Amino acid sequence: MTGPSGEASGTSARPRLLVLTTTFPRWAGDREPPFVFDLSRRLAGQFEVHVLAPHAAGAQRRETLDGVHVHRFRYAPQRLQQLAYDGGILARLRERPWRLLLVPCLLLAQAWALRRLLARHRFDVIHAHWLIPQGLVAVLAGATRRVPMLCTSHGGDLFGLRGALPSRLKRLVLARCRAVTVVSQAMREAVLALRPGQAVQVVPMGTDLTSRFTPPAQPARTPGGLLFAGRLVEKKGVRYLLDAVARLRAAGRAVTLTVAGDGPQRAALQAQARQLRIDDAVAFVGAVDHARLAQLFQTAAVAVVPSVVAADGDQEGFGLVIVEAMGCGCPVVASRLPAIDDIVIDGETALLAPPADAAALAATLGAVLDDPAGAERRALAARERALAHFDWHGVVDRYAALLHALARG
Predict the structure, then answer these.
(1) Which tens digit of pLDDT belongs to each residue from 346-397?
(2) How many domains does the chain have?
(3) Which domain holds residue 133?
(4) Buried b (16+ CB within 10 A) or exposed e, 103-130
């Protein structure tokens, strides 16, 4: 994965792409969500790709990963660089409100690092992931006056940042973008509500459905084995899943639950499991890498995605974990939310339950467990749908086409 450190050459036949992000692997094997890196390295065959991301303890300031030139900027003394990674900026702010003091430091540091990169290289196009902070950073640094920019919103920036000032800042960024994409139709409607008439395309993130998230060679699913994978934060709705598991076990069903993920709610959720007296049936295994996650999907009886709308309005922008489960041929039960409707067809590729309703979730899970033939039929249809819409091959082609068009002016 890693390569020698160093700068790219000053000339290249490929257009030069600069990716701005705050979510990126800090080192080989890091368990940070890899979707920005996965897209970047797949674009590296058509572009000379540079990535500007925050530094973190243990990470190199400059390196090359799978053909992607990575530049990491410091925004505080190393022990205080606690804003990015490990769940993302919004989750880190909710966990420790004092980290709000680091926000201007990160914005200014990334803007300064961006200006230095623009002085050192001639970039043909910028891809900013998230309206805030990356899109705003590009505007603050004056980058959008010099280089055309595509901005992709992933959900937290659009749904989780509310109020008059954040809304004004998002409208400012949207006005300065040459192109805007969102990862679900629900997000497109949110962008249009924010800035009517904005040109915006729906282009989801992808995942590896041909070599990583695939069905097992010999299916051997754990009877009654439920699986949740994701960050342990409010919008994931895990507390309702624990209540549903308690209901199922009280009804005499021998279900178990594996919780793959970490986050600020972990201790509270473990305490809830003890209070419900289901802690012997619930395994909190922490964050896992993609190889282990694929194995979990390949052996689970049902993948459960009980997402909700958080108190501050934050909600799923897409739901990539659903696609990964579908790729592994794992039956899915999820919440009926707008972004999830983009991925599954209720009754055909998954079963949906009302969000924040433990009784309905338990009933839906019971229906899946009672009808393994129907669950298998939906899972087969789900994998075909995932391959057609969410495999990296098609997704990368769409992003590449947009970026090439912008690079050509």
Answers:
(1) 999 999 999 999 999 999 999 999 999 999 999 999 999 999 999 999 999 9
(2) 2
(3) 2-206+391-407
(4) eeebbebbbebbeebbeebebbbbbbbb
